[in-house]
Design brief:
The chain is of the alpha+beta class. The chain has a three-stranded antiparallel beta sheet with strand order 2-1-3, with helices on both faces. Strands 4-5 form a two-stranded antiparallel sheet. It has a single domain, classed as GIY-YIG endonuclease (3-Layer(aba) Sandwich), CATH 3.40.1440. The chain is built from three helices and five strands.
Length: about 100
């Protein structure tokens, strides 16, 4: 299984969105400084994750969330979850 995940920095409140095969191991790497893009804002807390059957699906979900460029959208995903929208123009369309 592959997951898309959302972390929140305890020091800055910012969000980080990523995808991985092992969410808990990836969180440990973020908090150990193993990711340059999150190193400065440690520590991080896992706020949300959703599993997908394939990496391709997880990457599509990650890209969709990142394209929104919206703190409010990320908060909505955390609160309400992320669901695949069936029957949209694009097969990879995802919404809340």
């Amino acid at each position: 299984m592959f997951s898309v995940y959302i972390l929140q920095s305890e020091s800055t409140g910012t969000y980080y969105v990523g995808q991985t095969q092992d969410v808990h191991k990836r969180l440990l790497r973020h908090n150990a400084g193993g990711s340059p893009s999150t190193r400065a804002a440690r520590p991080w807390t896992l706020k949300y994750h959703k599993e997908f059957t394939t990496r391709s699906e997880a990457v599509k979900a990650e890209r969709y969330i990142k394209r929104q460029k919206s703190h409010q959208f990320i908060q909505k995903v955390i609160e309400e979850g992320l669901q695949i929208v069936r029957g949209s123009r694009h097969p990879d369309a995802i919404g809340t």
